[in-house]
């Protein structure tokens, strides 16, 4: 679903959108239990130039009582039941029609506008024009048509659109007819399969399309004019993804075509509208100058959305409590598909570094939530599109597959999709099918993991001739809380692998011959951390894979922030990784040093030494992962090492012919070494590629001079950059210690404006989760007071989590003597 880059250090996170005021949707479910909707027949007369539309929807339904639909920012003109005008009442987002018990057709005529928000049917501008595109998940279909905007009320949708004849119209199905009448054209689409309202799609504009046909399905990449050259790679990925999922799920893709639509202004990253998937341009289009990093991201995002065509679209959750199941499963399956297409990328290492690591970090706070969370209102829905719903859920599913067995897991998923196709289901239904296929205790285990917040730490110690392992909840603030999970523990003792389903707080494992080597949580398949009490020498004697070495340093970083490990001991551990030869553990150490540098300069010398050493190791490597890693290492070194920045900046004139994955580092180096704001801004404005624009945005907040960083941030509030680029700008500024103070000042001055930009989405909440722990350093009281005075319901969870992590960071800095008060005069 949606994605943006803000986790610090770099991390891809998907998010979604939602619209409207806080309406108790669960109440709608209760009141309308006796309502059955068969179909929507929707006619829209769209004035593309004046950004408005007239609508007429005919809804076939059967109801036991008055019908309550949803409507937001629509002017209702006329309502009829079976052709007879009737009374109606509008209260908030509820639109109640006086029908009594009836079977037949409810007709509504209405008016609306194409929005400048990023939800509903909205205007997405680009240089030289704009398109209109819909974003409905979770509850914004009601902004285009009066409907029962609830995932469990599936229906057929028939759409007819009248609009300007010089535009094209895209929807879920291919058009059956196009009639041109002078300046207007009418495009008619056939009935969709039964689906939820949030999956309906409408796009209007001038498109370039690249098409292919494979196994009876038309594949189409649609872009704004001038950008279709980036279509071949995503077209191939879409075809290969459908082929993979048809084989894995054991059923064919259900629609006659699959559109991949590049939307030039998008709050998130991608949305799985059935047959008409929308994307931010940077996660869809790939040209000859695209970096391998972006290619990996594009492949994974497309696979994620294609997976949803079965898991989410064909079978849909009953209610948003199970949102996590849609997103977690699609996240997990995307890595499976990408791994089958590009085995050389070792994407499961990216999964561990991205999805699992982000979730472990977020879920180590008191202010977290269970994977399955009770949802009542739109704002609550939106705030759970986060690391828990995506990363933790996907990691738990990976752990479940390892426990149940890959083949049994696949057979359970197939039977689930077959049983509930074109309908709705809950998590319990999937667990039942996998349990039946695997003959294991799937349901009992999964219910414990999804309904309880947090995760365990497994403490390991040697007691004579037995190994004692004890579990408790891991909390980053250092507090203790006894809790137990059913943990599928994997371990290697003296080179021999063993498994244990740990369901008690403590277990003992006989080791009559002693312990010479030891490692738990093999390949990091389990969602827990491991602490070895006096046994780390034996861990290092174990024959560890790159993923296992990653796990040791990942857990160590968390223990160090928590206070369980001494900072000096942690730095000593990093010495073991200075000459690391493998992609994942090297990337993890770089991530950690980048994250630490954002809050304290005490790691500056360690970071310089590590990144310089790694660049020498990577210098002549040609494999794609090494190319990605080299670019990231160079970019991070340029931020902390002015001498390196000057060396790299001297090559800026060779930028156009440089390796794409090195271009970000060159821009950061140019900013650090030259202070040349105008060149970077001119490049941002004039580059057509979204990846290039993103690179120069990062450069604009990478200066050592705070006033330049402040100037870059003002580009956002002055409207000189796209709305969708605000997150890139803020994320980059947050990572730069020289931009910390000016970024906090910008947030406080522009907070209400920022809320308005992302109204109807939970984007600001996620921004604050990851920014406050850094921006608030040395100003905890000020930050706490600001948000006490500026309460925003849609940001509650993000603020609470961000403030908790800030206090943890502040305690770490105090404990290690690393706190540094930086007072910068903004001129």
Please give a structural write-up:
The chain is an alpha+beta fold and 827 residues long. The protein is built from 26 helices and 31 strands. It has an eight-stranded mixed beta sheet, with no helix packed on it. A five-stranded mixed beta sheet has the order 18-19-20-22-21, with helices on one face. Helix 2 (232-249) links the parallel strand 19 and strand 20 (257-263). Helix 2 (232-249) packs across helix 4 (323-341), helix 3 packs across helix 4 (323-341) and helix 14 packs parallel to helix 16 (624-640). The longest helix has 21 residues, at 796-816. Mean pLDDT is 91; it is low at 1-32 and 822-827.
Topology, number of strands: 31
Low-confidence stretches: 1-32, 822-827
* Tally of alpha and pi helices: 26
Shape: globular
Helix content: 40-55%
**Cα separation of the termini:** 41 Å
Instruction: Give average pLDDT, whole number.
Output: 91
Tell me the strand order in the biggest sheet: 7-6-10-4-3-13-16-15
Largest sheet: 8 strands, mixed
The SS-based structural class is alpha+beta
Strand residue content: 15-25%
Rg, Å, rounded: 27 Å
């Amino acid at each position: 679903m949606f994605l943006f880059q803000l986790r610090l250090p770099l991390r891809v996170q998907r998010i979604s959108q939602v619209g409207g005021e806080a309406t108790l949707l669960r109440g709608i479910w209760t009141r309308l239990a006796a309502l059955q909707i068969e179909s929507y027949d929707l006619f829209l007369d769209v004035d593309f130039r004046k950004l408005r539309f007239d609508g007429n929807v005919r809804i076939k339904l059967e109801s036991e009582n008055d019908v309550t639909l949803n409507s937001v920012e629509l002017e209702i003109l006329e309502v009829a039941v079976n052709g007879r005008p009737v009374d109606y009442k509008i209260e908030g987002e509820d639109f109640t029609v006086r029908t009594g018990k009836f079977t037949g057709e409810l007709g509504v005529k209405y008016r609306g506008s194409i929005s400048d928000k990023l939800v509903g049917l909205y205007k997405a501008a680009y240089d030289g024009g704009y398109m209109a595109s819909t974003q409905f998940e979770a509850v914004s279909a009601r902004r285009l048509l009066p409907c029962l905007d609830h995932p469990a009320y599936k229906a057929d949708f028939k759409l007819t659109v009248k609009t300007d004849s010089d535009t094209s119209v895209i929807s879920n199905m291919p058009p059956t007819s196009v009639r041109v009448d002078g300046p207007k054209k009418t495009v008619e689409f056939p009935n969709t399969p039964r689906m939820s309202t949030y999956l309906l799609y409408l796009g209007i504009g001038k498109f370039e399309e690249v098409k292919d046909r494979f196994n009876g399905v038309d594949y189409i990449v649609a872009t704004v004019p001038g950008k279709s050259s980036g279509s071949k790679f995503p077209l191939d990925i879409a075809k290969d993804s459908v082929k993979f999922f048809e084989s894995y799920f054991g059923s064919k893709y259900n629609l006659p075509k699959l559109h991949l639509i590049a939307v030039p202004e998008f709050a998130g990253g991608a949305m799985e509208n059935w047959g008409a998937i929308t994307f931010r341009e940077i996660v869809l289009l790939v040209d000859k100058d695209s970096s391998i990093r972006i290619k990996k991201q594009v492949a994974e995002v497309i696979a994620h959305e294609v997976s949803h065509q079965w898991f989410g679209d064909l079978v849909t959750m009953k209610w948003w409590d199970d949102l996590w199941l849609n997103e977690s499963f699609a996240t997990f399956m995307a890595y499976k598909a990408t791994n089958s297409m590009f085995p050389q990328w070792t994407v499961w290492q990216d999964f561990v570094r991205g999805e699992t690591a982000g979730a472990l970090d977020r879920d180590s706070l008191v202010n977290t939530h269970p994977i399955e969370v009770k949802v009542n209102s739109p704002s609550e829905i939106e705030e759970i599109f986060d690391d828990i719903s995506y990363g933790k859920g996907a990691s738990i599913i990976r752990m479940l597959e390892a426990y149940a067995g890959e083949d049994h897991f696949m057979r359970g998923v197939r039977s689930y999709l077959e049983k509930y196709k074109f309908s709705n289901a809950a998590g319990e239904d999937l667990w039942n099918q996998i349990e039946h296929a695997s003959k294991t205790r799937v349901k009992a285990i999964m219910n414990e993991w999804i309904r309880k917040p947090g995760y365990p730490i497994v403490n390991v110690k040697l007691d004579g001739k037995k190994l004692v392992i004890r579990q408790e909840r891991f909390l980053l603030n250092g507090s203790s809380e006894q809790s137990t999970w059913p943990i599928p523990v994997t371990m290697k003792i003296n080179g021999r692998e063993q498994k244990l389903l740990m369901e008690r707080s403590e277990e003992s494992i006989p080791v009559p011959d002693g312990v010479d080597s030891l490692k738990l949580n093999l390949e990091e398949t389990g969602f827990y951390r491991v602490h070895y009490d006096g046994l780390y020498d034996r861990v290092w004697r174990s024959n560890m894979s790159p993923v296992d070495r990653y796990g040791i340093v990942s857990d160590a970083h968390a223990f160090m922030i928590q206070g369980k490990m001494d900072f000096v001991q942690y730095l000593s551990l990093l010495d073991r990784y200075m000459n690391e030869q493998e992609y994942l553990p090297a990337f993890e150490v770089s991530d950690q040093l980048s994250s630490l540098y954002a809050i304290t300069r005490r790691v500056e010398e360690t970071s310089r030494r590590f990144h310089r050493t790694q660049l020498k190791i990577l210098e002549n490597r040609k494999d794609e992962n090494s190319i990605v890693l080299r670019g990231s290492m160079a970019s991070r070194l340029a931020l902390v090492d002015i001498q390196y920045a000057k060396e790299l900046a001297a090559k800026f004139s060779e930028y156009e012919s440089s390796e794409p994955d090195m271009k970000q580092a060159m821009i950061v180096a140019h900013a650090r070494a030259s202070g040349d704001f105008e060149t970077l801004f001119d490049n941002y404005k004039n580059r057509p590629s979204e990846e290039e624009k993103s690179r120069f945005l990062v450069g604009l907040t990478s200066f050592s001079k705070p006033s330049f960083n402040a100037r870059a941030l003002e580009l956002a509030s002055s409207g000189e950059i796209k709305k969708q680029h605000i997150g890139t700008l803020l994320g980059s500024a947050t990572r730069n210690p020289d931009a910390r103070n000016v970024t906090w000042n910008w947030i406080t001055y522009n907070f209400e404006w920022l809320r308005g930009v992302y109204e109807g989405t939970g984007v600001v909440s996620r921004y604050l989760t990851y920014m406050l722990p850094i921006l608030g350093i040395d100003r905890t009281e000020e930050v706490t007071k600001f948000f006490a005075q500026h309460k925003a319901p849609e940001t509650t969870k993000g603020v609470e989590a961000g403030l908790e992590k800030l206090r943890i960071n502040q305690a770490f800095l105090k404990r290690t003597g690393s706190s540094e008060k930086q007072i910068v005069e903004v001129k």
